[in-house]
Amino acid sequence: MLKSLSKNLAPTPARSSRDPLSEMRSLMSRFFEDLSLPRASWDDWTADGRFQPKVELHESPESIDVIVELAGIEEKDIDLEVTRDALSIRGEKHYETDKKEKNCHYSERAYGSFYRSIPLPAEVDREKAEAHFKQGLLKIKLPKSPAAKTDVRKIAVKVEK
């Protein structure tokens, strides 16, 4: 792309009726239009180009609730594991090879495997963990362990005289 820009930025002969500033303006407009072409959200990708689903994590006194966006993935292709301090989500999105789309100029869909490890803010009761998958959303409920529920202690503030 830089080569094509540098060719277009070459000085124009003095007898040309084209305005160099107009040409530069036109080049810059095309450059920024190229940058704004529709693409998958940059937030869905890691620095090394792998797909990474979006995650929400909510904590209440009773549980840690996690919601993961997994559009286009089937339940059978999701693997969940919970340890003392993390929730691991693995999955794979399969490419539909039998569909041949003509006139497709670009594709925003991602295919392949992914992995997320989410640190947990409190210890959970792993035996009571539940996951439900519906319409591309994976909802995971991780009840807190009894120790994590009682791990908070109020401290009385005393006034000194």
Report on this model:
- The chain is α+β, with helices and mostly antiparallel strands and 161 residues long.
- It is built from three helices and seven strands.
- It has helices at 2-8, 20-35, 146-149; strands at 55-59, 63-69, 78-82, 86-93, 112-119, 130-134, 137-143.
- A four-stranded antiparallel beta sheet has the order 1-2-7-6, with no helix packed on it. A three-stranded antiparallel beta sheet has the order 3-4-5, with no helix packed on it.
- A hairpin with a 3-residue loop joins strand 1 and strand 2 (63-69).
- The longest helix has 16 residues, at 20-35.
- The chain is flat, with a radius of gyration of 26 Å.
- The protein starts with a helix and ends in a 12-residue tail after the last helix.
- The model is unreliable at 1-8 and 37-42 (pLDDT under 50).
pLDDT under 50 segments (min length 5)?
Answer: 1-8, 37-42
The ordered string of helix (H) and strand (E) elements is: HHEEEEEEEH
Instruction: Give the number of DSSP strands.
Output: 7
Strand count, sense and barrel status of the largest sheet are: 4 strands, antiparallel
Radius of gyration using CA atoms only? 26 Å
End-to-end CA span: 74 Å
Gross geometry: flat
Total number of helices: 3
Write out the strand line-up for the largest beta sheet, numbering strands in chain order. Answer: 1-2-7-6
Mean pLDDT: 78
Structural class per helix/strand content?
A: alpha+beta
Percentage of residues in helical conformation:
10-25%
Strand content: 25-35%
